[in-house]
């Protein structure tokens, strides 16, 4: 998310009044550090009802458990949110890679019972750490394979497939007392712009939207999803003027009215340029609440007290000026508190959920697609693992390791590895590999010309190269052995390395 400097003072409103408390209640801010800052403690006492954890707040599960205990010592009925999709977007395993495959791998297996079991184990871990609200799952239908921000975060390209796995994921997670937040309404799958940078636009007719984008959200609502996250996308067939997060037509008339949804509506990160760069952060927050959003996600980039005070004061000022009805703000705050009450009442379920720590690896193994070209020689000697690194999108970030090198080095002692990017990457790999068998690890090869060129060079010179695709497997399989993992989670890398050695 993009950082915007802010300044604020405590002079905007009285910290104890109902209006100020409601304004704080609708915010879901992040903070810096691995312990609770003093300013967060103060604002929890004044009405703040939610906080959000990001990768910067996570060192280990034990540390997160201690952190959430500190937070609840200030306010027991607190929503502690996290952006934990598992797969490529992980916060709990930000430093190691996820212990669970992401949506696309689960969609590739297409066993809703497995999806339910994976999300149940994820929920059990989150609940044990004191996290009770997860900004997941993604219910986006991956209609555009060139989408720069969704990709393997989607269960797939079929609305029916995405719908059944979205429902299973919601059911599994919420069985542990952790609230699910189905996203990104009304559907972010058919975009070619990342809303972290600009406003994406989906130019299809309403019939297509209703048939393709909405079934997964209908399924999530039927499964009882406790929250839905809005998308910062412009959908002219629904609202030609405002993106989903700021659109009354999309949030109130469509989601609440036509789809009958009565749970919490949360915005996507408001610092994202699609909102902050177009409307301004404070004005965008007021417009979102007025349109029907109940909770404001902020803190992926802006994680300071000044941001919280600015947004609180902007909401209070909007009510006092008549720009935002007071009853709309009060209704939003009530919905936030109601979700916190649900999670408090459901906490005991998590303690009764049996642990299944191997389910993530089981799922990653089942998801693999292995394609052999002729009678390739088995891989038995140390190899050179060449990882081709595309620029990461902001949702995934650049903190989380990925690939197969570490596991290959364990399975084939003496193996070495290197990372490569840009023009000439193929020749650089050939020079670095020497005489060793090459395992080329790519991510969304269909989206990157330089990556495809690198594979051309490698396969021309070394046709025995093994190719591991850890993104969307849209390009035709190439290599003596081609392994598609449908995601770059740590367990996907483990499963892929096993397949390399097994041949």
Give a brief outline of the structure.
The protein is built from 18 helices and 14 strands. The protein has 503 residues and is of the alpha/beta class.
Give the helix/strand layout.
Layout: H1 18-25, E1 27-29, H2 38-46, E2 50-53, H3 61-74, E3 79-82, H4 103-109, H5 112-128, E4 133-134, H6 159-174, E5 179-185, H7 206-212, H8 215-222, E6 227-230, H9 248-258, E7 264-266, H10 273-276, H11 281-291, E8 296-298, H12 305-321, H13 326-351, H14 359-367, E9 369-372, E10 383-388, H15 405-411, E11 416-420, H16 425-433, E12 437-442, H17 449-461, E13 466-469, E14 481-484, H18 490-502
Parallel strand pairs: 1-8, 2-3, 3-4, 4-5, 5-6, 6-7, 10-11, 10-12, 12-13, 13-14
Antiparallel strand pairs: 9-14
Helix pairs in contact: 1-12, 1-13, 4-14, 5-6, 6-8, 11-12, 14-18, 15-18, 16-17
Fold and architecture overview:
The chain has 503 residues and is an alpha/beta fold. Helix content is 41%, strand content 12%. The protein is built from 18 helices and 14 strands. It has helices at 18-25, 38-46, 61-74, 103-109, 112-128, 159-174, 206-212, 215-222, 248-258, 273-276, 281-291, 305-321, 326-351, 359-367, 405-411, 425-433, 449-461, 490-502, and strands spanning 27-29, 50-53, 79-82, 133-134, 179-185, 227-230, 264-266, 296-298, 369-372, 383-388, 416-420, 437-442, 466-469, 481-484. Strands 2-3-4-5-6-7 form a six-stranded parallel sheet, with helices on both faces. It has a six-stranded mixed sheet with strand order 9-14-13-12-10-11, sandwiched between helices. Strand 10 (383-388), helix 15 and strand 11 (416-420) form a beta-alpha-beta unit. Helix 6 (159-174) runs parallel beside helix 8, helix 14 crosses helix 18 and helix 15 crosses helix 18. It is globular, with a radius of gyration of 23 Å. The protein starts with 17 loop residues before the first helix and ends with a helix. The model is unreliable at 1-9 (pLDDT under 50).
